[in-house]
Amino acid sequence: MASDRGPLLHSFAEFLYAEGWEFFQAVRKPQLLLYVGREHSHLACVIEAHESEHLLLVRALFPARVSADKLSDVEDYVTLANMDVIIGNFELDLFTGTVAYKTSIDVEGVPLTPSLLRPLIERAIAAADKHFLGLMPVLFGSVRPLEALHHVERCTLAQAIDLASDLMEE
């Protein structure tokens, strides 16, 4: 399947296989791709290995691109959301409108165990899924970034879902 896989990407693929994740090798790049459905969203995940730097990265991509008229609002949301992040960060590609949550780790000299790799992918997916409820009303509604983030961070899950549904209908 993947002659393009270096040892890091190969190890990550073995981990995913052992954990029962369905994934495939990208055709043109040394990346693993998978799609996950979570409570609030369906996300694409891209796993990259930068072999020479001993780095592994996971990006959980949001399912919609940001239009030019919403770039400023989404940029504000991403900036505000990143303020309290401990592991990982939100990214906004200003040229393509892609929003992602990225986790990464330097693995030089470290054995690649499930307990090291599992949080890398799970944290990216969990953060993207959680913030889906805040980002979508900003992207497709008229909700201000700070208001959306406030509700995502401080509401119960049921309240956030109700708010997102209400705001999307406006």
What does this 3D model show about the protein?
The protein has one domain (7-169): Yope Regulator, Chain: A. The protein is built from 5 helices and 6 strands; from the N terminus they run H-E-E-E-E-H-E-E-H-H-H. Helix 2 runs antiparallel to helix 3 (114-140) and helix 2 runs parallel beside helix 4. It is of the alpha+beta class.
Beta-strand portion reads 15-25%
Distance between the termini: 48 Å
Overall outline: elongated
Q: Structural class per helix/strand content? A: alpha+beta
Low-confidence stretches: none
Whole-number tally of structural domains: 1
- Overall pLDDT confidence: 88
For the record, the CATH class is Alpha Beta
Largest sheet: 6 strands, antiparallel
What CATH architecture label applies? Answer: 2-Layer Sandwich
The Rg value, from CA coordinates, equals 17 Å
Number of helices: 5
Number of strands: 6
- The CATH topology is given as Yope Regulator, Chain: A
Order of helices and strands: HEEEEHEEHHH
**Assembly state of the chains shown:** single chain
* Fraction of residues in H or I helices: 40-55%
Cross-sheet strand order for the largest sheet: 1-2-3-4-6-5
